[in-house]
Design a protein that fits this description.
Layout: H1 2-5, E1 12-15, H2 17-22, E2 34-38, H3 39-48, H4 54-69, E3 79-80, E4 88-92, H5 96-100, H6 111-123, E5 134-137, H7 141-149, E6 153-155, E7 171-176, H8 178-187, E8 190-191, H9 197-202, E9 208-213, E10 220-225, E11 231-234, H10 251-261, E12 267-272, H11 278-292, E13 298-302, H12 319-338, H13 347-352, H14 357-366, E14 370-372, E15 386-390, H15 398-405, E16 413-418, H16 434-441, E17 448-453, H17 460-468
Parallel strand pairs: 1-2, 1-5, 2-4, 5-6, 7-9, 12-16, 12-17, 13-14, 13-15, 15-16
Antiparallel strand pairs: 3-4, 8-11, 9-10, 10-11
Helix pairs in contact: 3-4, 10-11, 11-12, 12-14, 15-16
Length: 469
Amino acid sequence: MEGKRFVVNKKVVVLDTNVLLHDPEAPKSFGADRIVLPIQVIEEIDRFKRDPSEKGRNSRRVARLLDGLRQRGNLADGVPLTPDGEGTLEVAFCRAETLAQLPPELRGGGGDNNILAVALEQMRAKGLSEPPEVVLITKDTNLRIKADAVGLAAQDYSNDKVAISDLYPGSRGVKVSADVIDELHQKGRLSVKALPADVMASLQPNEGLTLIDRDSADHTFLARHRGNSGEVEPLVWLKRARLGRLKPRSEQNFALLDLLLDPSVELVTLVGKAGTGKTLLAIAAGLHQVADQHLYARLLVTRPPISLGKEIGFLPGSLEEKLAPWMQPIVDNLDFLTGDAMSNEPKDDRRRHGGGPKSSWADLREMGLLEVEAINYIRGRSIPHQFMVVDEAQNLTPHEVKTIVTRVGEGTKIVFTGDPYQIDNPYVDAESNGLTWLAERLKGQTLVGHMTLTRGERSALAELAANML
């Protein structure tokens, strides 16, 4: 049976447990390669199967995948991953003699060391004219370092990675003639053919444009490519909105608010560093369309309950009281929008007089205009006719983001906001988080808009810290 297993000298991919917990469909992502799962990985998957979190759900999906593959043969001998036989998957054991060949510091066994031993054994497989190319795929940085130390190639799982530099900004400046700007101003629309050829070729649906007069940089006009219509139109939605004390401060702010206020753009991804106003702008646009325009039944706000720094233990009280620490940034933004943050009255006095948190938070909820939902309970729901804001979305995995978007019902608009450089979830990073993944995957779709904010608006000190610390 050993000879049968190694008849073809294919590239061998050894998968770590964390790869499968991150993406249960990962074994299908390597084409014709041989996928090897150390038995240690199966053991660790089994320990997660009763976990109620996303890891538990993914472990159960992996178990079902492997159980289905058993119908095609013995996993110890290797089974085809697809009906046409492209790629195989097998489960391999850690042999004592291979473990004994590891450096003395790594011979004690354990999860990582057993996985290393299996990968090294694949390099020394018998029955081949030359050793196969073996690569260990793991999201564990320390295991990749160990693999390098023993002469084994190791890589991060990059199937769903999106480099921040590859994200398109969502808006840009374009130099055109004064005649082009005048035509757009007078007619209210402009064919994209009037733009420079390179801009026309790369223009995305719903992308914001600042048209700049070639002869006078002070002569500008704000516009947006409407869906994928092939026409550029002026920003019009902000003129119809009443956002109170909120005033856009940059071309990006104007273009973003036009996206947020346009009902035809049903999903917006919003990326920006701390203090750029991501959450504030999203909530302001949502509250206006719920309370003033009645385009949506309510404003639904959710965010992952992941804290900065060490946990402070279990919180007492009801679900609302438990969520309060994580939802306080939302309350702060509502206070700012309703004017409570600028009041000179002490908070306790404002609460007695019907202002403060009562007016901006509790009253909105009592009127049914605002709902705060723990993201853990989104699965299984259908959410129609709501303006939904998913804050801190950089802490979500691609699978979690997909789960949320598939909950969206008829007439709902959903906005994802986040900063890929401020991630508190240990299982994702700046390039593998759900926010950037979603923005890249849906790029070019007519129903979708994206904006990357670059200028801080919170305060001069916050902007200095975001740029230099």
